[in-house]
């Protein structure tokens, strides 16, 4: 009886071994290839310069916030108010003009008032200078000794300005003689102050105050005598 021939497996070349074909699956969208880093961030701390810059910025922001808080506490606790200044009087005891050459001799006393309206803030007046002008030309200068002004205090100050044989240009001398004849002399005074404030035991840096006043003074020869006729003052603050 002839033997039967059975068909062999169709997996040619595999020698009967079983081979498992695995389907290739792509990596997920969040997959990052090994060895690849993200883009450089200028605000990361991988760079020493970057770390230093961030630290400085943080420190400055912290200081600004602290100063703002302290300033708000001081303001709402102390309720600081600006000092007030006023020219109370100006008296001429001597006023003479000569010609050929044109010279001015004078003796004028100014009375000033400084008022500190604060309850917990004192003021140190370290420098107080007074300048006298006629038609924008300086004709005299004086100063007041340093002093301390306490809380809620009104201080009256006097300054005497004297000038002997102060040279004047002829147009200025003619204008001044006409003002004397009209019994109203226009002068300008400028008060320059360098001061500090004291809060409890702390003292502030210096700040500057400039008080400019336009005034009219009657001469001693006027019927009512020498007195202050009018004034207009403007105060400027600075550092």
Could you characterize the architecture of this molecule?
By secondary structure, the protein is α+β, with helices and mostly antiparallel strands. It has two domains: 46-78; 84-238, Immunoglobulin-like (Sandwich), CATH 2.60.40. It is 18% helix and 45% strand. The protein is built from two helices and ten strands. It has helices at residues 48-78, 170-181; strands spanning 84-98, 103-116, 121-134, 137-144, 147-149, 153-167, 185-199, 202-203, 207-217, 228-238. Strands 3, 4, 5, 7, 8, 9 and 10 form a seven-stranded antiparallel β-sheet that branches. A three-stranded antiparallel β-sheet has the order 1-2-6, covered by helices on one side. Strand 3 (121-134) and strand 4 form a beta hairpin. It is elongated, with a radius of gyration of 44 Å.
Give the key terms:
three-stranded antiparallel sheet; 45% strand; Immunoglobulin-like; seven-stranded antiparallel sheet; 2 helices; 239 residues; elongated; single chain; 10 strands; alpha+beta; 2 domains
CATH class of the largest domain: Mainly Beta
Major pleated sheet? 7 strands, antiparallel
Tally of discrete structural domains: 2
- Number of separate helices: 2
Label the structural class: alpha+beta
Low-confidence stretches: 8-19
Report the count of strand segments: 10
Describe the oligomeric state of these chains in a short phrase: single chain
Helix content: 10-25%
> What is the CATH-assigned architecture of the largest domain?
Sandwich
As a whole number of angstroms, the C-alpha radius of gyration is 44 Å
Shape, principal axes of CA atoms: elongated
- Kindly identify the CATH topology of the largest domain: Immunoglobulin-like
Strand residue percentage:
over 45%
Order of helices and strands: HEEEEEEHEEEE
Average residue pLDDT: 82
Distance between the termini: 128 Å
